[in-house]
Specification:
By secondary structure, this protein is of the alpha/beta class. The protein starts with a strand and ends with a helix. The strands form three sheets. A five-stranded parallel β-sheet has the order 2-1-3-4-5, with helices on both faces. A five-stranded mixed β-sheet has the order 7-9-10-12-11. α3 packs parallel to α4, α7 packs parallel to α8 and α8 runs antiparallel to α9.
């Protein structure tokens, strides 16, 4: 992830001063024109673009406008000695500038602003990477949940087929030994026995492949570990716009040891539980809807609680709420989110449960810490 700050100013003296002031603590590149800056950005990943406004050929606002199109994630900071309201308005409307600085700058204030801009870029990139992993995880687990549901429904018929094939094999063996090799049907019976043997082998292969996939997935989960606290914060940040519109949010996240599981899978669980809470809330004033997210240590595990006051009765649905395609919110949900979440949590050795709170529901997910997980796995 880049930590490069690119400073653009047609006055070379300003470039030299900023490089001398910040170069030891921050990674600074410089350019004397907008086209020069764009050329650098097309070759290097730039995190923060700091540009003067009044430059010949291409102004700071014009540069920001083009950067916004080509490099939308770059944090854009306008620096100018002019307090021109029109320039400021144009910078906001056309270039989506995140911050303004004035010349002459105060070095410590400038450094603080640049560090904050770098942190904003890093957070944005982390959220984007997490969202990408969430999409990938959701696709994979949606297929897995569907396949798991189908396998569950086929388990009894396949067992019946295997049992009947065993009975048929035994019956053919008895019949073949009874008629003897001189009987006209002896060869046919032998061929039928071979066909039954092939069918039984195919059934066993299906069983072995299914078990192999499950064990392989669990081994990978045992090898991965992630910071669940950071994953929860990033997920909440990515949802903050929708959360603000739907409910009052109460968050308590402790710093915890790392837990078993990949960032993408853990993020999928956090996302699904929070989205489920939002979808359960009725249409009413935002101030009447509440969602509480708590992450804390619970013995040798991390415990994530997502509680809402959606006024849902769970007595009838508690046993089915984690089933694939079962949705308590009608068309608003596909019925896979909670099923996916439970599968992920159980694969890393955790548990996912739901309890009624009277006003709503509380979903509690527990995750073993990586050290304890490694011990138990051994």
């Amino acid at each position: 992830m880049s930590d490069i700050i690119l400073y653009v100013d047609d006055d070379e003296a300003n470039l030299v001063v900023l490089q001398a002031a910040c170069g030891r603590e921050l990674t600074i590149l410089t350019a004397q024109s907008g086209p020069g800056a764009l050329a650098i950005m097309r070759e290097r990943e730039v995190a923060v673009l700091l540009s003067d406004q009044r430059m010949p050929g291409m102004s700071g606002v014009e540069l920001f406008e083009q950067v916004r199109t080509e490099f939308p994630d770059v944090v854009r900071v306008l620096i100018t000695a002019y307090s021109d309201f029109q320039d400021a308005t144009a910078a906001i409307n056309r270039g989506h500038v995140q911050r303004f600085l004035r010349k002459p700058w105060v070095i410590e204030e400038l450094k603080a602003n640049l560090r904050e801009a770098l942190e904003l870029y890093r957070t944005t990139r982390k959220i984007q990477l997490l969202e990408q992993r969430l999409r990938e995880t959701e696709r994979v687990y949606a297929l897995g949940v569907v396949a798991g549901g189908i396998a569950h429904e086929l388990r009894n018929p396949i067992a019946a087929v295997a049992t009947n094939l065993s009975l048929l094999r035994d019956g053919l063996a008895t019949l073949t030994s009874t008629v003897g090799p001189r009987h006209p049907a002896f060869t046919t019976l032998q061929e039928m026995a071979l066909t039954v043997a092939d069918a039984r082998q195919s059934v066993q292969q299906i069983t072995d492949i299914t078990r192999g996939v499950e064990l392989s997935q669990r081994r990978r989960d045992l090898e991965d570990e992630s910071d669940l606290s950071e994953v929860a914060r990033l997920t909440l940040t990515s949802l903050q716009g929708e959360l603000r519109q739907r409910a009052l949010l109460d968050v308590s996240i402790e710093a915890l040891p790392q837990v078993r599981g990949t960032r993408g899978k853990l993020g999928q669980v956090v996302l699904n539980l929070i989205v489920n809470a939002m979808q359960s809330l009725p249409t009413r004033p935002r101030t009447q809807n509440r969602i509480r997210v708590t992450l804390r240590k619970d013995g040798d595990r991390a415990r994530l609680d997502v509680e809402d006051n959606g006024a849902r009765g769970l007595d009838d649905d508690a046993q089915r709420i984690f089933d694939p395609f079962f949705s308590r919110i009608g068309a608003a949900g596909a019925g896979l989110g909670l099923a996916i979440s439970r599968q992920i949590v159980e694969e890393v050795g955790g548990t996912l449960r739901v309890t009624s709170t009277g006003e709503g529901a509380c979903f509690s997910a527990s995750f073993p810490f990586a050290a304890q997980g490694a011990t138990s796995a051994a």
